[in-house]
Specification:
The chain has helices at about 5-10, 25-40, 45-65, 70-90. It has a domain at about 45-93. Helices cover about 70% and strands about 0% of the residues. It has about 90 residues and is mostly helical.
């Protein structure tokens, strides 16, 4: 049976609606390094944590775009990538 767009958007391959999943290592890494960056003094360590945080979020988003369980998860990954790009491009303009 062919799935409708709505089913592909919200459901996984087992027909379960998936909006939220247990965070994977990349999302947990992003969150932990972001929080740690708030508590260290400005300087090399804070900047390094910021870059690690950014890299982890980019990897998570790219993995969601490529392997997300449904179109919703893939769209979230795409939106995160677009927001990251805009947040780094707009301050330059």
């Amino acid at each position: 049976m062919k799935k409708s767009f709505s089913q592909k958007f919200w459901e996984d391959s087992h027909g379960k609606v998936v909006v939220w999943q247990k965070p994977n290592i990349w999302l947990m890494s992003w969150f932990i390094t972001m929080i740690l960056g708030w508590f260290v003094p400005a300087g090399f360590i804070q900047k390094t944590l910021g870059w690690i945080s950014l890299a982890a979020l980019v990897i998570w988003a790219l993995l969601e775009i490529k392997d997300g369980v449904n179109y919703f998860r893939r769209t979230v990954g795409l939106l995160v990538i677009l927001l990251l790009i805009l947040s780094h491009v707009l301050p330059i303009l």
